[in-house]
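Task: complex structure prediction.
Instruction: return structure tokens for all chains below.
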Amino acid sequence: MSLYDLMVSPFAEFEFMRRALVGVLALAIGAAPVGVLLMLRRMSLMGDAMAHAILPGAAIGYLVSGLNLFAMTAGGLVAGLVVALAAGVVARATEIKEDASLAALFLVSLALGVVIVSLRGNSVDLLHFLFGSVLALDNDALMLIAAIATLSLTTLAVIWRPLVLESVDPGFARSVSGSGGPAHIVFLALVALNLVGGFQALGTLLAVGVMIFPAVISRFWSRDLTVMILIAVAAGIGSGYCGLLISFHAGLPAGPAVILVAGIAYCGSVLFGRCGGLLGRLVPRRHLEA
Amino acid sequence: MPVLALRRGLLALALVALVAAVPATAQPAAGGDKLNVVASFSILRDLVHNVGGDRVEVVSLVDPGGDVHVYSPSPADARTLAAAKLIVTNGLGFEGWMDRLVQASATKAMVVVASTGITPRSAGGSAHGSGGIDPHAWQSVGNVKSYVGNIRDALLRVDPSGRAAYEANAAAYLQRLDRLDDAVRRAIATIPPARRKAITTHDAFGYFAADYGVEFIAQQGVSTETEASAKDVGRIVGLIRQHDVAAVFFENVSDPRLIRRIAAETGARIGGTLYSDALTGPTGAAPTYIDLMRHNVEEIVAALK
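Output:
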């Protein structure tokens, strides 16, 4: 098998492969930068919780109007935001820490979502909710994912300064500007939006993977925020491309294959990463000499 | 002291678990003096209903429209089984969860495997948990006649006093099945032989294909338990192009979006819904087994002709 057969011809020959590739490209471009900021704000768990929270929202959309793209998207978006805000309120108003209330809320959402889906659909529908169908992206789904990526990048550019400032030094950010709070809310909306986009292709359980994995991988290779975001986008695109190829050649389910490739890249980064990787720590580098 | 309290708590929990694990006791038969029969899924329920008539009260564990392959039984199902006098299953590895459920319910009911005596086909393509046997034997009317015979014999053993009724019902139903078999063959004969090729979402029509001479290429292996991989989809698109397949069929238990994508990519016609593993509700297109077969054949003829 030539290199062309291995790496190009699946996409040249089959439209569904091209569509899947475009889908994961757009997802990576939109979600990876959001994931990097999510990680810097120590909110990776929040991403997970919101991804689960999308399930009941999308399920209510499904209950009302079947496998309708926009009903499920709107439902998921609202539910994701509600859980994010609810976790914040519980953390501030009670003695429970935010991570604990998130863990509680995402379990409730998952259970509620499964119950709602089974009200109308059967267990196969549920499987598509949980794991998506990246091989069956139609025009509407692709447009939605691309639109979300565009909106996400534009919005990040607008709220970039207060967002980054608040991520690295919240005390200083509060002392010089009052725009941290609104920026935080907008950022949460972006997280929910990107997860809803990922839900179309990868389902609620795996959507958060294209957001978190590239971010964590990038953290092992650079300390510069801009470089980290570039690495994260590249890692997301690479995982998507390799995952689809593996699914095509080895006959593995497509969505899980994409996330597994990202997981393998993560393990590699943990071992060999330049910034804080295991091997780098075991083998001490020379001190800088003046 | 707190340790002691904790230990006491754990002990209490263990007791609760023990009590919960005691099998549900058999409930008195619902529906007066009728014979309680449990069928594993809706098609068997319809067959039992036709043979048993008014003398039996039959329920199915998997509702119409549900997917037996990935069904997970609930505690209520164990209670239903415990109250039954007769349990009818398809066998051939179709209801993988049934044996455990029967044991867990501690039921005293007789269990009859309806597919006993038919000639099993091996599943085309990927083999799965059932040792590579295709369980969808009811897609051939000839096999269902064996099913009806097995169900009749089982009812006779459990309820000998109803012999006359069961034998008369079974004979009448077998005649209707003979007429159905004729109708299916006549309908398929109207399709030109070169066009008797179709794609389905679920490899459930192997027995139909063997008996009636329509070739079905499945899009998703033999079981809906697995997610489609890019390899499978690529293979199917290649197959459609290669064999010039005329139609692609939806099924009531698989992802319609994937089928639409394949149809858009190859220009094959999208056929209507074929029902394979489950009947529809009373208002649907296939409330009984005979309706199901007639509906499927109509759709196949309409799409391939």
